[in-house]
């Protein structure tokens, strides 16, 4: 028993001994931790003291560096920068070497060398093509000039001997015209047939409704002529009416359509003011004398020769046919064509220069040996839009080459008589190309050496180029004169004054082209801003009417009593503040030009998308495309470029109260210092309108041509029984007919000119006829050249051939 207890006590003692040893170990560990912490604390205190000492030392060094930095000059900085550049160069060189070794990439120098080599090859190729173009034209025109001068000498000898002399045919009639018969031409000829099939199937009204819905309210309000007006104004106006922001739509053309509508309503405002205005613009200006009018009328024909050639339809729209037909026009007026370049509608008037081709205007050089005078006529530009139904002399070409010249309006220097002037850059370049690249200068020099005088004639773009040609040639041709119809603003005011003895510019009524300048467009932008209140009110009314028109599918409204317009007039008068857009007040309305002008429409303004939408306000999901938009018209404070004006003396053919008056002046006429917003500004640009206005002024002054009996019509058959050809073009009169060569087809194709009595075709004596086009069911509408002939007893417009229409001033 005792032994067992002893064993238990020993085990218990051993257990307690182990517990005591464990507790002792823990105590030793805690003591070691405490000792280590104490040691670390002592070390940290020491480090803290050392850090404080080091911080004080660094603070002193920083103060010294700051004081030193303040004493560093720019030269030291430049030196450091040079060192940095050198390091960058070395790094770049190392990078190039690495790139060559690893990726095989060519160095920048090698790439530049290759690019320069390619550019040199392109320039060499362009120079070769340009030289070939120049040499070919120079050789042909020089040969024509030599042949003409030889005939002039020989003709004078034959005339002295009493023998007839036939002039040389430098531009003979081409052979049979080549008609295109490829797949593209066939598909184009089938297109009118497909459209006819759509109409026959009963879907014609659907197409019409789709056009109305797509065009929107602008398609309803803006006539084709006014759309052409907008097309011509917007490129230059956009430089002065910037930041036209339509926030809620990205549709193409929305901004342009908004400006077009604003121009439309501004034109309506001016038209209403003109109806209430009794005074006449430029009423105190002097009238042009009769000699000036006769001088202008003498050159109406040459200004239209190239337009007649441009009207030739396919397949006669080639350079050979156009040059021949233009030469025919000159021949019938007693001129011999020496050179004709670019007359066809399909002919590109460009020189293959590098890096971009250079455009020039079509031109024709003709001469009269008996009078020893020469005429250089330059054709006007054409509109890019070829589907507006306007006459060719208004509408224009399918080629944009002429419009490249118009849009290149940056001023360029021109020296005349030792003085440097600023002129229209694109027109100056075109004039120099005609003289030097096309070989015109060499031909003119030969004519001058033979004693010929020179007159330069042009219309529209051709008038601007003609004015600058005069400035370029005045040193070589002291007796040079220029007649410019519808001349654009192309010279600075000092040069316009210097050209007064040489250049006579004719402006008809509200013609846009002579008024289309940066200064006038700047003022037009301010006028748009001043007209903003009236625009909002009138647009809201027309928009509501347009919604109703679309919703009712074009239902006709009943007549309304005129008294209902009084309230509208009164409200508009309140908006205008009893300040009409008169000639004196138009420029003074609105904010000053020296301020930055900004108009912001209210966010809640409800505008219709001018580009168009087929939906109405009642249609589910309708949302006006311009709702919540802001229109900003920012008018520039100054015009960046020098002001360009019409060159030389100016005769304004101004129609008022049923009669036309010829006002003499210069580019400072008040009516030329503003753009007249009207669709008549486009139609007044037509060369036919210029000719008719000259006749009207001449008749209004009491100058009645000598009365002669009406001419007898020439029979359509020759004594041998053959049908006579057209007296102008020499072709069978049925060449413009769609089909048929029988005698029945000649009934509507044979015409007689009321001026000369000769047999003519519909193309050479156009009166708005519809002639066959180059497709099934396609017809072309010719221009209407009819005019009254009081000397023949015809007071109403009658059919005359083109040459007689050119001489209509004397009939």
TrEMBL record:
Main location: membrane
EC nos: 3.1.1.116
Alphabetic keyword roster: Calcium, Cell membrane, Coiled coil, Hydrolase, Lipid degradation, Lipid metabolism, Membrane, Metal-binding, Phosphoprotein, Transmembrane, Transmembrane helix, Zinc, Zinc-finger
One BP term from GO: lipid catabolic process
InterPro entries noted in UniProt: AB_hydrolase_fold (IPR029058), DAG_Lipase-Related (IPR052214), Fungal_lipase-type (IPR002921), Znf_FYVE-rel (IPR017455), Znf_RING/FYVE/PHD (IPR013083)
Superkingdom per UniProt: Eukaryota
Protein name: sn-1-specific diacylglycerol lipase
């Amino acid at each position: 028993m005792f032994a067992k207890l002893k064993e238990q006590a020993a085990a218990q003692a051993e257990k307690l001994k182990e517990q005591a040893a464990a507790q002792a170990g823990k105590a030793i560990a805690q003591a070691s931790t405490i000792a280590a912490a104490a040691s670390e604390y002592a070390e940290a205190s020491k480090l803290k003291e050392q850090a404080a000492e080091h911080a004080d030392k660094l603070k002193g060094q920083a103060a010294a560096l700051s004081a030193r930095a303040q004493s560093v000059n720019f030269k030291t900085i430049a030196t450091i920068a040079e060192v940095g550049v050198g390091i960058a160069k070395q790094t770049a060189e190392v990078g190039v070497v690495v790139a060559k070794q690893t990726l095989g990439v060519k160095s920048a120098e090698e790439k530049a060398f290759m690019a320069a080599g390619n550019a040199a090859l392109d320039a060499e190729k362009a120079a070769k093509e340009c030289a070939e173009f120049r040499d070919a034209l120079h050789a042909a025109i020089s040969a024509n000039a030599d042949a003409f001068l030889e005939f002039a000498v020989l003709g004078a000898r034959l005339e002295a001997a009493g023998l007839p002399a036939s002039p040389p045919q430098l531009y003979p009639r081409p052979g049979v015209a080549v008609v295109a018969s490829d797949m593209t031409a066939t598909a184009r000829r089938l297109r009118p047939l497909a459209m006819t099939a759509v109409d026959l199937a009963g879907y014609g009204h659907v197409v019409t409704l789709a056009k109305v819905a797509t065009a929107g309210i602008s398609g309803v309000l803006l006539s084709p002529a006014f759309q052409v007006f907008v097309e011509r104004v917007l490129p230059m106006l956009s430089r002065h009416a910037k930041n036209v922001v339509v926030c809620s739509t990205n549709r193409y053309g929305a901004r342009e359509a908004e400006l077009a509508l604003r121009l439309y309503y501004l034109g309506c405002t001016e038209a209403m003011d003109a109806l209430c205005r009794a005074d006449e613009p430029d009423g105190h200006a002097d009238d042009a004398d009769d000699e000036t009018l006769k001088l202008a009328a003498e050159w109406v024909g040459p200004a239209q020769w190239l337009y007649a050639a441009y009207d030739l339809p396919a397949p006669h729209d080639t350079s050979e046919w156009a040059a021949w037909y233009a030469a025919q026009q000159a021949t019938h007026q007693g001129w011999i064509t020496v050179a004709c370049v670019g007359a066809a509608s399909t002919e590109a008037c460009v020189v293959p220069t590098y890096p971009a081709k250079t455009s020039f205007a079509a031109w024709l050089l003709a001469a009269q040996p008996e009078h020893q005078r020469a005429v250089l006529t330059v054709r006007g530009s054409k509109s890019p839009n070829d589907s507006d139904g306007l006459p060719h002399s208004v509408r224009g070409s399918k080629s944009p080459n002429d419009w490249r010249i118009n849009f290149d309006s940056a001023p360029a220097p021109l020296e005349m008589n030792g003085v440097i002037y600023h002129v229209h850059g694109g027109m100056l370049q075109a004039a120099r190309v005609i003289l030097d690249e096309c070989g015109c200068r060499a031909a003119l020099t030969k004519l001058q050496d033979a004693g010929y005088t020179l007159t330069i004639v042009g219309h529209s773009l051709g008038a601007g180029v003609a004015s600058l040609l005069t400035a370029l040639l005045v040193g070589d041709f002291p007796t040079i004169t220029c007649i410019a119809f519808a001349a654009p603003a192309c010279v600075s005011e000092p040069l316009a004054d210097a050209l007064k003895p040489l250049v006579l510019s004719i402006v008809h009524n509200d013609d846009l082209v002579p008024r289309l300048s940066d200064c006038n467009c700047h003022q037009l932008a301010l006028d748009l801003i001043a007209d903003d209140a009236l625009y909002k009110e009138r647009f809201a009314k027309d928009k509501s009417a347009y919604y109703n028109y679309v919703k009712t599918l074009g239902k006709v409204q009943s007549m309304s009593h005129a008294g209902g317009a009084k309230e509208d007039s009164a409200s508009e008068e309140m908006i205008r503040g009893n300040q009409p857009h008169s000639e004196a007040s138009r420029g003074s309305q609105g904010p000053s030009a020296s301020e930055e002008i900004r108009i912001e429409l209210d966010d809640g303004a409800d505008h219709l998308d001018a580009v168009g939408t087929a939906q109405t306000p009642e249609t589910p999901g309708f949302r006006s495309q311009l709702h919540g938009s802001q229109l900003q018209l920012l008018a520039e404070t100054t015009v960046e470029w020098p002001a360009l004006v019409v060159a030389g003396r100016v005769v304004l053919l101004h129609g008022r109260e049923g009669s036309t008056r010829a006002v003499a002046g210069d580019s400072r006429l008040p009516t030329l210092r503003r753009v007249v917003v009207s669709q008549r500004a486009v139609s007044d640009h037509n060369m036919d309108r210029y000719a008719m206005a000259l006749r009207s002024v001449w008749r209004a002054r009491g100058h009645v041509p000598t009365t002669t009996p009406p001419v007898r019509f020439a029979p359509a058959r020759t004594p041998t029984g053959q049908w006579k050809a057209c007296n102008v073009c020499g072709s069978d009169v049925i060449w413009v007919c769609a089909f048929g060569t029988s005698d029945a087809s000649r009934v509507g194709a044979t015409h007689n000119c009321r001026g000369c009595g000769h047999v003519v075709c519909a193309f050479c004596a156009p009166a708005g006829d519809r002639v066959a086009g180059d497709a099934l069911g396609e017809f072309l509408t010719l221009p209407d050249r009819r005019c009254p002939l009081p000397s023949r007893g015809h007071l109403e417009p009658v059919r005359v051939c083109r040459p007689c229409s050119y001489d209509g001033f004397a009939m």
